[in-house]
Amino acid sequence: MRTTTGWRATGPAELRRTTLQRRDLRPDDIAVRVDHCGVCHTDLHALRGYDRHAKTPLVPGHEFTGVVTETGPQVTAFSVGDPVAVGNIVDSCGACAMCEAGQENFCHSFPTLTYGGTDRQDGSTTLGGYCREYVVRDAFAYPLPPGLDPAAAAPLLCAGVTVWEPLRSLGVGPGSRVAVAGLGGLGHLAVKMAVALGATTTVISRTPGKREDAQRLGAHDLVVSTDTRQMDAARDTFDVVVDTVSASHDLAPYLRTVAMDGTLSLLGYLGPVTVEAMDLLVGRKRLSSSGSAGRPATAGMLRFCADNGIAADVEVLPSSQVHTALERLGRNDVRYRFVLDLSDLE
Ligand code: NAP
Hints:
By secondary structure, this protein is of the alpha/beta class. Helix content is 24%, strand content 28%. Strands 3, 4, 5, 8, 9, 16 and 17 form a 7-stranded mixed beta sheet that branches. The chain has a 6-stranded parallel beta sheet with strand order 12-11-10-13-14-15. The protein has a two-stranded antiparallel ribbon with strand order 1-2.
């Protein structure tokens, strides 16, 4: 085993800097010096639910960029010194129909998550990117395209790809009418991508003060979700609603904004939801969801972002300020993604 330094959960929303173990490189592994790791709301959900007596360790972080420091003997796609990016899936069975279709995120025997997953070979719990080094199968690392700032690109690997997948699979393009509900880490990237795809894009937000930001990001309008008059005016309007709201919420007002034969893609809150069938029946509306993406779509998303100059709006903090980042994220005080600079873990 090799050792590195990282931030491990010691209780609900509480982390401690500590020494962590990483596996020795397998033939198809690369070692990555983690330079930047985004702080996803999922990390906050995981940390808030963490029991200090839990049997499995928790080191969050599933969207990071860094540099290859070592390669296993079978690795041909990467060399030492290459800039790379890693998202929230680090392995899959490679043999099921989903993996063969390039949808490793839906692997029938469950994809190995970057943290809190179970390593397919030794059964250990995977530890995430709030650390200085990660060891990963080469197939689940992506070359970071030139021109993308490594700190601002890190959130593309979870927030970005999560919203890219429904935009891509629902055929969003010129003439599409897209709404993005919740202007946060996922939401602001959804706006940038939808605009770059040529869609007329609207933000649905509970925060009127985000109007200027929405416009700066390229959105054509902002509808205040708590203003029933504004929500009524948006009735039957959007071909696609990308719902990134991080808390449980009533879907009915959002479904009413979906146009005939349109789709609401629920990406944020992933717990149980209640839907009135009539809210789907009237207008033949669809309710869908999505999570992460497979390897081909992830690589395609990175190319699209590099070609269109898309990266996250980030506030970079030294990793020693991880608690500040989490606390501010919890109260919606982020424009629009915290990224940890892990160089202070040397
Ligand atoms: P975030 O940066 O905190 O953004 C969430 C946004 O939701 C907030 O900025 C806010 O936008 C809105 N919001 C929050 N609480 C709300 C409430 N009670 N009522 C209405 N709106 C509320 O979070 P994120 O990192 O983008 O993540 C968003 C969600 O996606 C999280 O639940 C996360 O776990 C989930 N997620 C899912 C996947 C997946 O694979 N499907 C991947 C990554 C993350 P406004 O101020 O504009 O209203």
